[in-house]
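FIELD: query
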Amino acid sequence: MKERKFVSDAVKRLLVNEYIRRETDAAGFGGIEMKRTPLGTNITLIVNKPGLVIGRHGSKVQQITETLEKKYGIESPQIEVKEVQDPDLNPQVVSKKIALSLEKGWAYRKAGNTTLRRIIDADARGVLIRIGGKISGERARAQKFFYGSIKYSGEPARSGIQHGFSTAKMKQGIIGVSVKILNKNYRLPDDIEIARERIIKSEVKVDGATEVGTDKKNE
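FIELD: result
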């Protein structure tokens, strides 16, 4: 029974995520956070343009709230809309921008390199952009754009790496765009700080004479 409930909750969460993504796609969907509380379910939507999600007099948010409660069975949903702090460091927003650029006719190399430079200028510690599909010819392949440090396994990959994925609908087929960005505030296990030694001069009087000594102190 516990396994069935776990699977049903995971499916419900996935369906809600897909619904929210569709409804907020035009506003620049950047992520969703769901937390259950004694009073209901707190849902935080992170978007690039909050005004498009809130709607006039909150009509859009009210519509989303009613749909989540009636169609998806979310208990007392309470929606909060937040603006993306830095769009160039949000992998979901970045992947969507690349997909839109491809649909507008940009070459995949131009879209990838331009986005990569913009993320580097935003002081990202690491980024991996992967564009896959029929990007150049009839045969599908993938192109990666890489900078800095990216972790693929272990706790750093789960906690320090943020993921984003979008698709571009092209004449030759669907092109997938995945983006991974290392959280700039995450401390990696191999981040090492070396303590510097500070030399402090001290004067010691010995039999009327002044003797200068040095003491070493770690900062």
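FIELD: remark
The domain at 87-182 is CATH 3.30.1140.32 (Ribosomal protein S3 C-terminal domain).
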